[in-house]
Structure formats: structure tokens, C-alpha cells
Fold each of these.
Amino acid sequence: MDLNKNNEKPWEDTAAGGQSPVDVPPVAAGAAGASGAQRSVLDDLTASVKQVDRNVILRLLKNPLEGMKLSSSTDFGYGVVGIAAAVVGFLVWVLFMGSAMNSMLFGMFGFGGGFGGFADLMETKRSVSAAIFGRMFLISLISAASFLAALWFIGLWRGGRRLSIKQFITQIGAMQFVVGAGFVAAGLIALMSIKLSFLVVTVTLLSTLVLSVIAASDMFQIAKERLASFVIFSVAAYLLLVSLLSSIVM
């Protein structure tokens, strides 16, 4: 029996007299690659957001369809910031609308109940406001994600052009700056007139829906004979996704 074989170290390279590198387990290598990819995406996103130009945003506010001229390679930040602006604008409107409705209710019914009753009422108001704000935040995220997903998938299905998700977010997202501005304006108007505020929000949402569908039909090169079905399926898919995700999350 050759005892030297049993004493050989598995990491020694007997032919070269050196030490071979240790193999990295596939799972660890995959995890490292995924982590590196995530860092790369975040770095690219951060760099794109830092390059956002105020003058370009002003042009997008004046004419949202200017977003169709943007390129994902250099203007991706406008799409991301535009979507974020729409969500933040909606939350601003919720805050102002809640304040206006609270003022109206307090004016109608008064405080009542002395100091203790007033303190209890204010505590209840804060708890209810926090719960409503959190729910509205979820609704805004669900609505934005459903809207983008509906246009994206229906566009791929009915369109004649394959569009990357990054290019799609860049162009459609950049058109949402006007949505954020509309929500903020509606919030300020709510302090004077709740009815008028709801009217401004309705006009903002309908206008955005129409403009986004028009832009998406052009981006995906929807044929004229498929345009009607694209519009119908996009709106139906959006409403279905909002209803489904809301029932799951909320």
C-alpha cells in the first residue's frame, strides 16, 4: 500500500509544485453576480437622476409629449423622477384634501366635550389621518405600477415594435411630471373649494390617460386597425390590475 497517496493534500499541484486556486461554489458566484448587477443598476439610476435638467422638466410640463423624444441611454432619470413626481403629487393632494375636509367637519360640528373631549378628538384625527395616508400611498404605487404594466404588455401584444422596458419607462414616465403638478394644484385648490379640487384631479387623470395611451400607441407602432382594441384592452387591463392588486395588498 502506498502511504504517500493518502498523505497528499488535495490542494497541492504535484506537477507544478504550486497551489491551485480554490474553486468558488456556483451558488456563491451567482449571488455575487446578482449583487453586482443590482449595484450596477442602482449606480446607473443614481447617475441618471443626477443629470436631470430643470429646463427639460419645464418643457415636459408645457408639453408632456416631448417625453417621446427622450432616449433611455441618456434620459432614463426623467422617466423615474416623473413617476416619482406623480406619486408625490398625489400624496400632497391627499394631505391638502384631508386638511380641508377636517376643517369643514370641525366647522360644522364644533369641538365639543371640553378640553378632554377635544384632546381625544385630535388623537383620533391623527390616527385616522395616518391610516388614510398610508392606504393612499399604497393606492398610488399600485395605480402607477398597474398603469405602466398595462400599457407595456398590451403594447407588446398589439404593437408592431418591440420596445425595451427602460425606453418605455423613460418616455412614458417623463410625461408624468404634469400629473404631479396637477395634483399639487388640486391640493392647493382644495383649501378653497373641495368640489373644484376634485374637478381638477378628474381632468388631470383623464388627460394623462389619453396622452399616455396616444404616446404608447405611437411608441409601439400600433396599426390603425388595432388602435381601438389597444385602447380598450389597455384601460381594461389597468382597471383589472388595480382591482386585483388592491384586493391582495389591502
Amino acid sequence: MAKASRSPKTKAAKAQSSTPAKARAQAQLRSDNPMDWLFDNPLGPYPNFVFGILKQSYQGFSNTAVEFGGRKLRPVEGHTTDAPPDRPPITAYRHGTVLPEDAPDAFDDIELLLKAFDLAACPHAPALLAYVTLSFPDARRLHHCWEEARAFSVQAFARRRQLPVGLIQHCPGEAGSDNPVHVHLLVGPRRLDGIGFRGYVTDILMDEGQEVLHGEWLNFRKAWNEKT
């Protein structure tokens, strides 16, 4: 006896009913750890140095600089919203920005700067920001780490490449961790001047950017230590 074929209407109804379940299953796969949203350390791990690129999407999930940066600004709460009255307090030990010479003063607000990164994103260029973490396992004072990371950001990004940077310092010991003090650098991928955002700086938006910036950091540290 021939098996009755399923009508197109039945097939369509079944496909439609399974779509929400499939979407829910996919949504549950997204990691809650923002480090999993990055394309990080393409050349392998370097000591006390992390490099990555936050792209507009990763493994099918959308990213924003605001959400990623919000997690770094709030390592305890780990969440952020767009509505200022509902925004939880920043819990990172210290935060700030480094700006190119003619950048608007309003970007002294790191969250406003992160929002500007999102608004300046172009469909043809996936990068929302370049990410660097500088760790200081031998730190004696928190402000020493901050001053060194900030000075490096001024030299390597604001002056050399005309790029804005959001800086976030974490002190893991506050949460009972032995991890070293570190500073996250969230680097805008486009040059910024008095007119606005310009072209993308491609030398740090590729795998080789890890080696480029790591080399610049080592050279900077050597000169910094000689001066101090």
C-alpha cells in the first residue's frame, strides 16, 4: 500500500512551528563570557598580553561595543542597558579614555565613546573595536599600572594612529582572586579628528596586529622602565 504523502500545508506548518524552538536553542548557545565573543590571540597566547578583535557578529550572534564594554566596566554585575536611570553602577576599579588631539571632549565619557564606536560601524568592515589587555603581575601600586597603560595608549593609538581608546582597570584581588592587576584597552578601529570618524586603521585589524602591538608594547615598556 502506497504511503500517503504529506501535504505542502502540513510541511509548512511543521516547519513554522519548529522555527521558534530552533531559535531558542540557538540563543541558548551564546556564551555569557564576553571574551568568547572575540576573535582573540590569533597567533597564540603571549605572556601578560591579550589581543583580539570584536566584530559586529561572532558565530551568528550580534555584538556591540556598548554591551562588550559594559561587561568590562561592570565585572561584578556584568550587564548594561541603554537607559541611564536603569544602568547599574560601574564596578571596575578605574576607567577613562585617551583621545586624539582634535576628538570631541564629549568622548571623555567612556560609555558615550563606546556608543560612538557602534554608530560608526560600516557594513563592509566587521570590526567594532580592537581589544588589548595589559597585565601587570609584578605591580606594586595600582596607579603605576594605570599610568603606564594610559601613556602607551597615548603613544601607540592617539598619536601614532589617531585612534580613541577606552581604558578599564581591573583589580581582581577585590573579588578574592590572585589574577594580576590588568588594564583593558578598547580601541576604536577608525581614525577620529575634529570632523568625525575617518578611515579604518588596518594594521591592527588583522591577525598580524597581535604581533605589531605586542612589539610596540615591549619597546614602550623598555623605554618606560629606563625613564622611571
Amino acid sequence: MNKLLITFLLLVQGVCLQAQSTFKCGWTTYKTAMIVHEFTYSYTYSDSFRLYLADSTKTFIAPDSAATLTISYPFRDNNKYQTANYYNAKKKLVKTEEYKDNLVQVMKEYKYDDKNRKTYQYEDNRLNSNNFKKTYDYSTDKNGDFIVSEVSYFNGRVEFYTKTYYDKNNVRYKEIRLNDNNKDVVHVENFYYNAAGKLKERTVFFPEFKVTKKFQEPGGDAPVKCFRSQVINIPEKPSLSTKISYLKKLLYKNNGALLDQDCHEFEYRFFSSDCEVIIGTTKVNNIKQVIFRYKERVNG
């Protein structure tokens, strides 16, 4: 009896190891080079930090990043969601397949020019039988600013035209939306940034009504100190089994910044060779959250 049990356990272990070493996208099986584990928590603090799991994903990455498969495990949802991404030799995304319980929901395709700029995007929604297409052209104006001209289609019919303007530092500062006749202006949107380069405000002018509306962006008026990126500053090594205690130690270490009264919205990124932690506030409802990403290298 004990022999049978040991044999069974060894077989199960072998299947698990084999499943971890490969993954399947569509009809193709890929060797796994790396697995990225991601956990998203909301957190509260009074006398101590409390973490509440909101979402988690696992991303399998093939050698040379030819394909990736992300499996999502949403909180309080028994469905299984998967996203398969395929890349060309230049590491550009060329195809995406979105699944729910192994059934394709959405398929997307992308094409690029010889400068690796996206020229075509197509989306086929299998749930509602709608399809969307966008084409892109690139030019520069007399000031040397960059212009991206987009044509958007819905179920084969032109829906609208868009011209987006970027300055010499590749910062978007204006967008003009035209009707399906490519003449009538629907709106003109301008973008404004703070000293840290973060978007702080948008203004949208509607010519038909001669009205301009302003929209404040979350965190746009926060000081520069509220957004930073740095090497992880605790000596402990991250792992999947100790991630909660690891995150709490990192939170306590940086508690001064997290409690800074000047930072109503903030984002602090901490990183190492195999781990990334993002502590910040959400754009919706300003909820405090922690994202833990851990790279697991798979031996061939």
C-alpha cells in the first residue's frame, strides 16, 4: 500500500513539474523560461499593516519572449481567464488571444512598419460579433513635432479620425478628433503635466457647443517626492512562501513616505533582479494597494 502511495505521489510530482516546464498557447506548446507571479493587495494601516488579496496572475514566458501566457485568478470569481500574447523577432506584439474557461472571447492582431511603429490594429470580439480596426500613419509638422494619424473602424465602417501630436521629447500634448467625414472637428483635447512629467490636467474643447471642459488627473498636483523608483531597501530575500511578511517589512521600512501628509496620491516602485513591488494609490477611489511581482526562473 505504501509503495503504491509513493508511486502515485512521484507521478503527481512529475506531472506538476512537466506542466510547469511547458505551456500551451493556441495549438503550440512552448518551453517555459520564466514564470512571473503577480499578487495585488489593498492595505490599511492603524497600529499595523493589514493586507487583503484582491487579484493574482501567473505569466509564463517562452525563451526569447516568443510568446507569453497570463492566467488570471480574480478574487471571488470561479472563472479562469487567460491571455496569450505572440511576438515577432523584434519583440513586437503581433497577436493576442483572450480566453474565458478555455473559450476564445477576443482576438487582436497588430502590424508594424520597418521602423517598428504600429500601422494596423484589429480586434474581433467573439462575444458580441463586433470588430474594430485602426490604421496609423506618421508624419512631422514644420516645427518638428510628431503627428500620429489614426483611422478608426467599427464593423467595417469608418467611425472617426484622430490626429495626436507629440513634442520632440515624445510627450503627447494635443489630440484632435474628427468625424467620419474627416472634416468636422468633434473635440480638441490638450494635455498638461507637472514638474515630474506626470499628467495633471486635460482640457477638452467642443467646437459644436463652443464649450471647454477641464479634467483634473489623479495625483497630478502631488509633489515630485510622491512618485519615485528605487532599489529594494530591506536585506530580506523575496519568495512566494514569505511574500506577506516580506511586504510588511518593506511597508514598515518606508512607512514615513507612506504616511507623508503631502502625498494624498503616490506611487513608489521598489525593484531587484527578481522582484518588483509597487506601493501606491488607485486612480479610482484612491485605494491604497501593493503589487508584488516575483520572477521564477525555470531550468530547462
Amino acid sequence: MIFTIGTIALGQVKRYNKFYIETRFFTAPFPIKAKETLLVDATDPNHVKKHLIRRHRQSVIAGFIRMPAIMAAVVLILLAGERQSIPLAGCAAGISLIAIYFQCFYGRPTADEKREMLLLGKLAGIYAVAAWFETTECEEFYEELVHQYRSKFAGADWKMDLLHQQVRAANIPLLYGLTLFNALLDPSPGNIDLRNKAQQHYAALGY
């Protein structure tokens, strides 16, 4: 644990396959203000990559709570031992449980998030959830997946394939990835419906 006045990264959450989210905070020495949220790619420890993403609520909450909760638990445990106080011991136990929860369990990826992270990891080499990215990054991912689809399936139009049920195991992962970003960029009822259809096909493969 580092106590400093300045900007440090806190609030690590959604850790999966050496990717995780963190938020940079201004501290003095405890977290005062959340700045930006980053997706960290630590697959290569010698060349860690960081991608700016949307502000992540769980990362911000973890960043604000973890350090003060640990410190409060330590202080209360010491005070309870020094004063032999049962009420202080009860408070110390409660704060310690909160600290343990936020340190060890809070911010783990859900089963649905893991499924999407694994999909994007296979398609784009980045284990993340599409909704974490800003619009510009979503557009870039979408264009890359469109290029992949056309190259892999002889110039086919992914929307036409999905609408006309030209769906097979080989193109379902790409279809689902495309619909995720397409629905984020244009959340019309039609695009949401396409995403839901692709999600059903993807789930039918056993993912």
C-alpha cells in the first residue's frame, strides 16, 4: 500500500486473462478525486499496455473504499486490543469483513462478462466488454470486425447473413462481436434485435 500526494492507479477490478480495469486517482494521501479509467493489458509484463475506457463505476468505488477500509480495520483492531473493548472489537470485525470483501471479491467479472471478454479476446486480442469503450474505439473495433468478416466469408454482408439466417458455427462468433459494437454505436430496436439473435446463436454453441 502506497501513501502519496499525487496521482496513482487504484481500484483494480474485472481481472481476467491478465487484463484488468484500474482508475487513476488524485490522492492526498487517501483518494480524493477519480480521474480516468484504464483497461490494462498485462499479458507481457515487460510491455504493459493501457487503453483509456469509459469511467467504470465499480473501479471508482473500489478505489475510494479499499485503502480507507483497510486502514480503518487496522486502527480499530489495534484500539480494540489496547483497550480490551468488546464494542470496538465488534466494529473492527465488521470493518475487516468490509475490507476483505472489497479487496478479494468486489469487482470480479460476472459469467456474462467473462463470456464476452473471451469472445473479444479471440476476435480482437483484448479481453474486455464492448460497452467499456468510448465511441471512437467502438467504431475502430467494428470496422476491424467488418473487415475480418468480409475477408473470411468472401465479401459477405454480415447483416444480410444474420437477417436471412445464413448462420453457421464458423461465422457465429464474428456475428456476435459485430452486433455488440453495432448496437452500441446505433442502439435502434432493429440493431438490438440483431444483437439478441446473434447472442442466442452464440449461446447455442455452448459458450
